[in-house]
Every structure is written in C-alpha cells, then in structure tokens.
Amino acid sequence: MSPEIGLLPEPWASFLGELDQMAIEPVDFHCIGGFVVTRRYGFVRETRDLDVLSVTPNTQRAAFIQKGSEGSELHKKYKIYLDFVTVIEAYPENYEERLTEMFPGQLKNIRLLALEAHDLALTKLGRNIERDRDDVKYLARQGFLTAEELERRYRQEMRPYLAVPEKRNDQVMELWIAMIQEELADLAR
Q1: Can you name the residues that pair with 113 across neighbouring β-strands?
Q2: Other beta carbons less than 10 A from residue 149's beta carbon
Q3: How many CA atoms does the CB half-sphere of 156 hold within 13 Å?
Q4: Is the dihedral of CA 110, 116, 117, 118 positive or negative?
Q5: From CA 74, how far away is CA 38, in angstroms rounded?
Q6: In terms of Cα–Cα distance, which of 30, 50, 55, 28 is closest to 38?
Q7: Which among 24, 34, 90 has a CA at the least distance from the CA of 58?
Q8: Which of 52, 119, 138, 151 lies in the 20 to 30 Å Cα band around 89?
Q9: Contact call for residues 121 and 150 (beta carbons, < 8 A)
C-alpha cells in the first residue's frame, strides 16, 4: 500500500487547504523532493517544504508564491512552505506522462501530482547531496526504482538536454548505478 492512501496529514492538510480555498480554478502541482519521497513513497525523514516543479495552468502561480512560500504568513503559521523550484538542472523529458495523483479528492481545486520514482531520482542528480543519495537508495531498496531504468531514462530522456553532461552528470550517474547495485546486493545478503 502506498503511504499517500488515506488522509493528507497535518500540518499539510490545513496548509494546502488554505491554498486550495484561494484557488480560482482547478490547478495541478507537479511535486518533487522530500514531500514526494516521504508522502508518496513512505521514506521516514523530515521535510518542511513542498517542492513544486510546475503549476498548470500557471495563472495563479504568483498568488500561490505570495501566499505559501518561505517567509509567508502560511509559513509562519504552519512552519511549512511551498518551494517553487526554479533552479533544476534537468528532468526527464516525458515525466508528465508518468505523474500520479497524491491524496485524490481531498482538495477541491488543487491536485498534487507526484513524479514517478525514476523521474524523481533524476531531478536529484545534479545536486547529488547525501540526502538525495539516501532518497535514491531508499527508493531502490523498496523496489520503486531499478538501476537499469534509471540509467535508460537518464540517457534517453534527460542527457540529450544537458549542456555538458559528460563533465559531471555522467559520472554521478555511474556512481549512483554502482550505489544502487551495492545497496540491493546488501539487501539480498
């Protein structure tokens, strides 16, 4: 069973409920980051923000930023915030085809759409900090991603759009493949 089945937990339910009330039309949030790893895939770790890659339609994006971003009244009230990701090296070309809805029907106007595990991992490739590697190892251990599919998506759907992939991202991908394989080998022992 996926962790998101059930009710949207607090303080997220109240925070997103207030954003939902201000929405003037249905809107989709394409969600990435720790919120997705914890709420969609079940990893137990702290996250205080909801990283949003895209808002569609984006007509209310500025209003959501003003109402829910870091430093806003909602952030002060709930100690969590929206983080509209504007600096991300790349993401897989066809990620939108694989989005899944989180907490369906719990908000009137906002739909929270989570990236599929391989796509989610690839959004973390450029940053490659310890927390990102821990997330990727967790997703692999739980069977949400495989090294083969991760590499395939990287090579076919992401690498062609990177400016200079061989300088850094290719090396990180090679390290991640080895890391995943080692993690799964340890799990099999």
Answers
A1: 30, 101
A2: 13
A3: 10
A4: negative
A5: 21
A6: 50
A7: 24
A8: 138
A9: yes
Question: Residue with structure tokens 């310890």?
Answer: 130
* Tokens found for residue 31: 């969600």
Annotate 59-83 with b (16+ C-beta within 10 A) or e (fewer).
ebeeebbebbbeebebbeebebbbb
pLDDT tens-digit profile of 108-120?
Answer: 999 999 999 999 9
What is the per-residue pLDDT across 24-55, written as a single tens digit (0 to 9) for each?
999 999 999 999 999 999 999 999 999 999 99
User: Which DSSP string do the residues of the chain spell out, in sequence order?
Assistant: --TTSSPPPTTHHHHHHHHHHH-SS-EEEEEESHHHHHHTT-------EEEEEEEESGGGHHHHHHHHBTTSHHHHHHS-EEEE----S---TTGGGG-EEESTTSSSSEEEEEPPHHHHHHHTTTT--HHHHHHHHHHHHTTS--HHHHHHHIIIIIGGG-SSGGGTHHHHHHHHHHHHHHHHHHHH-
What's the length of the chain?
A: 189
